[in-house]
Amino acid sequence: MSEQHQSLAWQYADSDLANGSAKVIRTLIDHGYEAYWVGGCVRDEYMGRKVSDMDITTSALPEVTSTIFPKVIPTGIKHGTVTVIENGQPFEVTTYRVESGYEDHRHPTQVTFVRDVEEDLRRRDFTMNAMALGIDGAWVDPFGGRSDVDLQMIRCVGDARVRFREDALRMVRCIRFASVFGFAIAKDTWKGMLEVRDTLSWIAMERIRTEMDKMLAGPDPLRGLELIKKSGLYSKMKVPFPYVTDNPTIISAIPVVDTVQLDIRWALLIHGCGISSSEADKLLREWTFSNRRREVIMGLLSFQEAWFEQARGIDLAADRLLWINLVLKHGTDTAEAWILMQEGIQAVSKCLCNGVSLEQVRQWLEAMHIRSLKDLKLTGSELLQALNRRGGPWMGKVLQHLLVKSAAGFLPNDRDILIEEAKQVIEREEQ
Ligand code: ATP
Ligand code: MG
Fold first, then answer.
1. Tens digit of pLDDT for each residue in 297-312?
2. Are domains 1-141 and 152-241 of this chain identical in fold?
3. Whose CA is nearest to atom 18 of ligand 1?
4. Nearest ligand, CA of residue 180?
5. For 138-184, how does the pLDDT look when each residue is reduced to its tens digit (9 = 90+)?
6. Residues with CB under 6 A from ligand 1
7. Count of Cβ atoms closer than 10 Å to residue 418 Cβ
8. How far is the CA of 81 from the centre of ligand 1 (A)?
9. Atom of ligand 1 nearest to the CA of 41
10. CA-CA to 156 of 20 to 30 Å: which in 87, 199, 217, 428?
11. Which CATH architecture group holds 152-241?
12. How far is the CA of 345 from the centre of ligand 2 (A)?
């Protein structure tokens, strides 16, 4: 079979990806082993969804795979996984295996390599994820994965209670898939989840967060959030998520915000649950958000709190100054993200930003020709020199004063004028 023909089998994968992985499979077969595409890529192709990575399952032992291919990374040899680089792309090639002894409801204590692809598929979580596709286009679908996809149904492979108890993360994956694909959850699978949900407390928050990220970035995050609530899983997490639809309007704005703006969606979720910014900081740390993401979300929450506490809508000049101060404090990126967040809220409600239109704040933002201290035409050392004074806390205060006045357009951003203003501020303070 020519490579060109092989890649034609894949309608939803880039040809580089399809050709590269086909080459890996073909090479394994040529060496006398079995090899298939497996898991998410096979499912996504069948569903007509974009395929983003292509995993391969094989009868070859990891040591063998490592010697067959010139470029490999020993990703997890003990668990049977070798990353093969082909066409400049990485492919995870994993030996058929079964797992046993899940003592902590997460990690199998034993991995055993097996000879039969069906045995490998049996260890996988859901029927739709337990399918393999051969180079000749033949399906290996022993648990009715395609039929469940047709029925739009998430179903565990085997006894749900057993499978969820083995690895409790599967419960959150189940809801994530149901939410992202708009699928129902099979009755037995749901019942099994309710029976063993306590085991979720064993799962590292980082893994749960990753699933929640995928769910929140999907097309119907509200359904996923409600399913987690209905299943009782929020309170079973090691760090429970205090999900209450305190402000349903804010929560319902989540899907309106572009999916690429995941952290705005998180900010809406946290805000909508009535969690204050100081509580949020603790929660985000415990939920293992990176510092960068935590700062983005915290910036949005603090901006939101300050605006709604202080903006009045009756004195535009005062609101404008508040806006300028907030932009200078949190930065342009946060201000722009905050506007997107308000757009989301306004799309589902008539809620105005405390009487000030988004048009207005956007104009104020555009008119700000300087956005931070580094835009000021006067540095700290220039200020010290010009005033012939020693540094101290006064300096930060004076620079901040110059920044606000200049950003508001009350003071030209000109070195001599700024120095003159600084002198006056200090004189006034010293009187
Ligand atoms: P995604 O679209 O998020 O990548 P995926 O199904 O590909 O979904 P991965 O985490 O990439 O998810 O896993 C690849 C495959 O490995 C799955 O399709 C499934 O067959 C298997 N798998 C992943 N996680 C588990 C798990 N916790 N328990 C059992 N099988 C799993
Ligand atoms: Mg995947």
1. 999 999 999 999 999 8
2. no
3. 39
4. 1
5. 999 999 999 999 999 999 999 999 999 999 999 999 999 999 999 99
6. 39-40, 55, 124-125, 129, 167, 169-170, 214
7. 24
8. 14
9. 7
10. 217
11. Orthogonal Bundle (1.10)
12. 32
Q: How far is the CA of 231 from the centre of ligand 2 (A)?
A: 25
> Which pLDDT does position 1 carry in this prediction?
42
Q: How far is the CA of 21 from the centre of ligand 2 (A)?
A: 14
Residue at 319: amino acid letter: D
Does the domain at 1-141 match CATH 2.60.200.40? Answer given as no
Q: Where are the domains of the chain?
A: 1-141, 152-241, 242-368, 373-430
